[in-house]
């Protein structure tokens, strides 16, 4: 199953993807995570994109497309994949069309007020990448990761000024993909305001 998860930042794509990958036994490929790993590893690419991610802007298409093409060529992606956070522009979607054939594009629908609530409460463990939410999914012990006990941090791009900018970027550059994929008859809408188990169940039954 070749899937794309589309939707605004904070809609829960990553959370659902981490469960859906077990359900379908396919890898979860998040371009945001790939970039953050490069930044953490201080690679050439990481140094190139660090400031872009902190601002909430999009990394240039050529860089992003090349990274995804390389990732999809890895052995585990042969049996299928969940692309989370890619494509984000029409140019990326066209490039993806020439790389592979998709089975469905899941469109996570969530209104602006809820997006802001979710993003501003999000906290993350830098080393494991595990995410929490201050209200909806708090850690067992305040401020630290359940597994490692490390202090949780707020992503720079989850800070209020960056959130507003990321939403603008989403509306201008990524939302047009909804019509693009609806025209291609690939779009499956899900109500992302529900609890994660309900979103997963709705998606699995829609895909069946
Ligand atoms: P995410 O974790 O999906 O919210 O992505 C975090 C950041 O990574 C975005 O705000 C962009 O700066 C960058 N990024 C992730 N995916 C893409 C993409 N498909 N195209 C361009 N930039 C991306």
Could you spell the SSE succession in H and E letters?
Answer: EHEHHHEHEHEEHHEH
Low-confidence stretches: none
The kinds of small molecule bound in this structure are: adenosine monophosphate
Query: What is the total tally of β strands?
Result: 7
> What is the terminal separation in angstroms?
11 Å
- Structural class assignment: alpha/beta
CATH fold category name: Rossmann fold
Q: How much helicity do the residues have?
A: 40-55%
What is the CATH C-level name?
Alpha Beta
Outline type: globular
Give the number of helices: 9
CATH superfamily: P-loop containing nucleotide triphosphate hydrolases
The rounded Rg comes to: 16 Å
**Cross-sheet strand order for the largest sheet:** 2-3-1-4-7
Average pLDDT over all residues? 95
- How much strand? 5-15%
Domain count, please report it. 1
**CATH architecture level-2 label:** 3-Layer(aba) Sandwich
**Largest pleated sheet:** 5 strands, parallel
Indicate the topology.
Layout: E1 2-6, H1 13-24, E2 28-30, H2 31-40, H3 44-55, H4 61-72, E3 81-84, H5 90-99, E4 104-109, H6 112-120, E5 122-124, E6 131-133, H7 160-174, H8 176-183, E7 187-191, H9 196-207
Parallel strand pairs: 1-3, 1-4, 2-3, 4-7
Antiparallel strand pairs: 5-6
Helix pairs in contact: 1-9, 2-3, 4-5, 6-7
The structure holds adenosine monophosphate (AMP).
Adenosine monophosphate (AMP) binds next to helix 2 and helix 3.
